[in-house]
Amino acid sequence: MTETGLGELLATGRTSDIHAWGDDKVIKVFKDDVDTAMIAKEIRDSATVHQLGVTPIRYHGAVTMPDGRMGIVVDRLHGDALTTVAERRPYKIASVARRLAREHTAIHATATTDFDDVRDVAQNLLHTCPLSGLTLGERDALRRQIQALPEGNSVLHLDFHPLNTFEHGTGIATIDWQSTASGHPAADVAATCLLFTEAELFPGISAFQRALYQSVRRVMLRSYLAEYTRITGISRAEIAPWMTTARILRLGWLDVESEREPLLTRIRASIATTS
Fold first, then answer.
1. Which of 251, 232, 237 is nearest to 191 (CA)?
2. Contact between 125 and 246 (Cβ < 8 Å)
3. For residue 103, which of 24, 30, 172, 230 is within the disulfide window of CB 3.0 to 4.6 Å?
4. Which residues are CB-contacts of 120 (< 8 A; sequence separation ≥ 6)?
């Protein structure tokens, strides 16, 4: 269907804008340059994760805007992002990080074959434009490295961070399922570690703000990892081999200019250490 009116702009991100849609729903309107196949995947996966009981947020349908952009309608959240909770109460940063870990653990407790294997996703991205600087030999080495990683069947979010997790009702709800896959939980934890350590901070911030945010990231990551490994028994040694896969996913999907060379450098370095 096609709709003309949008409610209040609630949030904006790299790939979409979020608007109110009536009293109890929101619409995620994708930007013009987002691949239609990625949108179709998010539509499909948003419905599936709710059916699996992974998130309480329901999918209500796709909408074509008058300007041709696509949108998806989902339940409106009734709480703050965990990032906001931590910003308002800095003394709760470690506590928020532990809540983040518990939510991640709950997601990984659900097994499924409905999504692509994360190892296959990463291998397919080796042929995309952002990774075109790799030689054929480097791609072959990375493919072997990925294939050697352990299999799994857990639901994986792969963009899991405090801005995508919200207080909702009496619990936590995770949003933005555009990168969903299945596989070993350590793959998803590695992706979160990358977001805390290597992903670009907000553009245009001052040097002081950068240092502050980096400090907060370190505290959150330390508490998140401690809680996740305590609950699951998955060790940091099991997570580390997935970091290269996480970098391939990040670069292949988003290709953030400031991240491109550092990610490629680390991806290449992993070939040397595993050869």
1. 251
2. no
3. 172
4. none
| pLDDT tens-digit readout, 159-200 | 999 999 999 999 999 999 999 999 999 999 999 999 999 998
Per-residue pLDDT tens over the stretch 35-53: 899 999 999 999 999 999 9
CA 114/CA 133 separation, integer angstroms: 32
Q: Which CATH number fits domain 9-75: 3.30.200.20, 3.40.50.2300, 3.40.120.10, 3.30.930.10?
A: 3.30.200.20
3-state helix, strand, coil in the chain (%, to 5): 50, 15, 30
Q: How many CB atoms lie within 10 A of CB 123?
A: 18
Tokens in use for 259?
A: 């991240």
Q: Please name the fold of domain 82-274.
A: Aminoglycoside 3'-phosphotransferase; Chain: A, domain 2 (3.90.1200)
